[in-house]
Protein: Pyruvate, phosphate dikinase
Amino acid sequence: TKWVYTFGDGQAEGSSGLRNLLGGKGANLAEMANLGLPVPPGFTITTDVCTYYYDNGHAYPPDLEKAVEDALAYISRQTGNVFGDPAKPQLVSVRSGARASMPGMMDTVLNLGLNDETVVAVAKAAGDERFAWDSYRRFINMYGNVVLDVAHHHFEEVLEIYKERKGIELDTELSAADWQELVKQYKAIVEQETGKPFPQDPKEQLWGAIGAVFGSWMNSRAIKYRELHAIPASWGTAVNVQAMVFGNRGETSATGVAFTRNPSTGEKELYGEFLINAQGEDVVAGIRTPQDITEKARVASGSTRPSLENALPDAYAELVRIYTLLESHYRDMQDLEFTIENGKLWMLQTRNGKRTAKAALRIAVDLANEGVITQHEAVARIEPAALDQLLHPTIDPKADRKVLVTGLPASPGAACGEIVFTSEAAEEARKVGRKVILVRVETSPEDIHGMHAAEGILTTRGGMTSHAAVVARGMGKPCVSGAGSVRVDYAAGTLTSGGVTLKAGDILTVDGGTGQVIVGEVKMLEPELSGEFATLMGWADSVRRMKVRANAETPLDARTARNFGAEGIGLSRTEHMFFDAERIVAVREMILSDDEKGRRAALAKLLPMQRQDFVELFTIMQGLPVTIRLLDPPLHEFLPHSEAEIAEVAQALGVSADKLKARAHALHEFNPMLGFRGVRLAIVYPEIAEMQARAIFEAASQVAKETGETIKPEIMVPLVMTSAELDLTKARIDAVAKEVAQETGVTLDYYVGTMIELPRAALRAGDIAKTAEFFSFGTNDLTQTTLGISRDDASTFLGDYVAKGILATDPFVTIDREGVGELVALAARNGREARPGIKLGICGEHGGDPATIAFCEETGLDYVSCSPYRVPIARLAAAQAAL
Ligand code: PEP
Ligand code: MG
Structure:
């Protein structure tokens, strides 16, 4: 087995095709080397070694050591230095690199190979003592922290005390002798904390670092990140060992990160940050505020510090040449890391850059228009779920606002919530349904869970590429970073800015589009759906086969659905129309009636209201299909439950509290979801279904007359288990249709269909299709009844099932293909056989889930129906499924 792949000097043993083996970073370093770009020579230890390491009790393959020796010799041949040599020492960096990028999750060690001897040689070779000792203390700090588990703050404290004693404020004011003294103290810290001296043998250092990278694959941050992004633990990480180049060798050295297009807006411009005389992590860590790369950006930001373009024009020109080449080679926006050593540019990383949804759309549409990719590729490149970011409100520009401070617009969208200062508090609040804004000085990978739980994030330190900014953009959460004038006092639980102090629990609004932080709540605007969004959705619609409908019953929802491009209503839950203050009285009267006559009297009061509901839906949908479901929930849901409520309702209805209680008691069920609901209501109380059918037909006739549209209502019967139930109910509906036709003089076309949401219905779909003119898969109930997991009680244990890998995903979110999916496929097949051309759709929550939509395409369903806000997501997912 080949465990190690070298790269550098215009050639490499690997390439971008070997991503699984070399990890993303390693594969792209190899690719850049193959393209002849300036990449410091190095080698990648493969992900297979990681797998071997975990399969064999943390042991390496026997021939790995020899392979690493050979690869170190390869580096020597390129640089003329020798790893571990006291006279001409080669220093290296050691970094992780998984298949999928896991920002901030894994650990990096720079300047490896330094010890008490080599530091002298490095000083001599560079002609710079200060640089050598500064590098050495960085190395001890980083290695101590990452490999030897010595907390970072020990080093920080020693440094702070030292500076204080000398009356020095900035690190840059420390001399070579100062750093030399600090190296002594740092080594003492390591010895004190670990009980062993700092390792002086470079080989020991290297194997320690390699072990730490593999070890960090299983640290809790990495595990959490993989959990959130569905990355299997079995993929493993690679290790990249690379010759060091130094951005901290003075004023003609620098280090930076850049995107080939703006990752927030998608605009076509080089966008990034750099620091003169700095090393590696300084930019990302957000400790020093970085400088702009282009002159244009510097002018826009009003910074007084020079841009890269002005400070180091030759290196800048080289960066422009390389970024253009890389973007056209990878045919996508790239995220680059580079270091400039004594004026020479070196590339340390390229990868497809993370971006906001807005930027993703703009970039995909631009690249297609530039002819770099096809329209189909553009459609395929947008993650449907990411559209969610664009479909949510932004702050109304006209709204009054009390701006506390303006920070960096790190991740777009606006959010409002209570202030919390810790990720734990964010999670706690989220659990009880409260919305929070997470406020931190800066975030670290430990905060990922808190960022997830928060509506938005505010940090006081760090740039546009700080941890908070990068992670928030990936999550689609609004984020304002680097609000420097805000003082956070964690102990007191307060934040202060410009004399205003807010405490935990106070309401704050953050606007990640402008960087504004606003006291209190502000008016928000609905999203704008034109421009690139409309263009891309147009391309998506042209490849899509399945229709997309919405689940909607209110006029507001129906209109939202239409705006988002819904092509009809796939589920109108009529029970939602019954909870209105005025109607609930009539509904309760009906439930309390002792006989059919009483029920009919109460239903007569509901009829005009229901009719009006349907008139509005039919009018808004302008002839598009509208599926209306007959009453579904158990009747007790309409009755009051607490003593106080019972007393109040009894009085309003003019009945005794005892009678109300007795009725509620009689309707009590142990398993209401498996009880007296769905079509069972229509079987026992057919007058309810009749009233609803009448309301539908009268409304349809009225709208047809008024608008001249052909209205063809789809009446849907819920929770059918046997065709006899449907036969009986359909006969009632047909009879009502005849009556209404006689009364109005309008003969309507209509469909009567059913939900397939019980396993028996799926199994007997052939029989049911003899009567049903359409099926809509109610995958919420079908999942509940197939898995025997209560929809309402699943949350107590389902998380454990997913965490333990027993279920791959939550089956109420993504369809369980093997179980529930099998039933759907069977029912679709048998339904079609019994009634060729029968219309098939899905209206459970799964209808808006991209993975389920792919399944629906494979199964050949005619449409999916989902909540209005998910309609664009479903349109795109359906297009991708059809590609
Ligand atoms: C379903 O069961 O999937 C469905 C859409 O109906 P409801 O969620 O209203 O039970
Ligand atoms: Mg249901």
